[in-house]
Amino acid sequence: MSGPNGDLSMPAEAGAEGEDDGFGEAEYAAINSMLDQINSCLDHLEEKNDHLHARLQELLESNRQTRLEFQQQLGEAPSDASP
Q: Which residues are CB-contacts of 29 (< 8 A; sequence separation ≥ 6)?
């Protein structure tokens, strides 16, 4: 059996029993806190991205309408009325 890094000389279970992994409760709490902050930032970025996407869709539709109106004023047939 190989170890966690593919080491053939060390079984995967050898390092797990009876040895401290070097992290205490405080370290895990700090990591959890940092992960919560990262998650919160990512949620905020996702909301901003969704808002920008919606605004860009509105702008695109507005530009399409303006172009169609302009073409109609010039007496031309619209080249691509459907998206």
A: none
Query: Could you report the per-residue pLDDT of 8-36, keeping only the tens digit for each?
Result: 555 554 444 444 567 899 999 999 999 99
Q: Dihedral, CA atoms, 5, 11, 12, 15, nearest 10 degrees?
A: -100
List the domain boundaries for the chain. Answer: 32-76
Amino acid letter, 24: G
pLDDT in tens, 36-81: 999 999 999 999 999 999 999 999 999 999 999 999 999 865 555 5
For 14-31, letters b (16+ CB in 10 Å) and e give eeeeeeeeeeeeeeeeee
